[in-house]
Amino acid sequence: MRNFNEWLSEFRNSIADYKYYIDFDKVHRNVNDIKVELNILNSLIGSKNIETDFENLIRKYPEVLKCIPLLLAVRANEIYCQDENGGHLYKFDFGKYPPNSHLHYERCKYFMRETGLFDLLENHIVNNLVDYATGVETGLDSNGRKNRGGHLMENLVEQYIVDAGFVKNKTYFKEMRIKDIEKKFNLDLSEISNKGKTVKRFDFVIITENTVYGIETNFYASSGSKLNETARSYKQISQESQDIEGFAFVWITDGSGWFDARNNLEETFEVMQHIYNIKDLEEGIIKEVFK
Question: What is the mean pLDDT of residues 238-265?
């Protein structure tokens, strides 16, 4: 019998690598896609008659409008704005360039004025929109750390699976749905899919001579309500799968976020046969268990 407290004490604060924080390749790629248009907009910096200069510019180069959302740190081309008096909700679509019209130009100028972009340009608050956009993209990319964190754990686990001798798409598979597992390996997993009503996908599936292992992986560096929900959910899956012949559920988790959610994790640990952390991976648990 393993000791839960000892097992939990081995959990790590982070598995971040040097590429986790900012994906600069993506940042530079996104900025380069609109670099020409940004340089055209640079001509407005310090303008003494910015509304007229802006209208003349978008008449000649309407494609510069596609830069506007990024200048406001928005990914979508469509931006909705409601007038300050609570009146009309207007949609600005910077991915489309309608035919020349006085209304179109007036709306664009109104948008630039009300969002503060004219002030940013005419008062020389920034010196170069390419540099500014690079900073905005860097900030936006920091939002991707959550997804990168999830992939870090998956990549880590996959490396140990490969090191244990399993071959992708032959003896192990990634992101496999229950219905695909049932079809491919002739298993009945209705006990863990609510009779087929629940869509469930495992991060990895490992195949051995006698058993199909459905594996979930995650790493939590910070606490939150999701951890307790995850522990309860995986405890239920583990219990429901106990009587399924030829199938076993495996959970590989880690992260200091569990320190504040230890009670639910301990309940799952006490009833679940296959629950492991990174230290277990390092000590060869995959070769030991998946035979």
Answer: 94
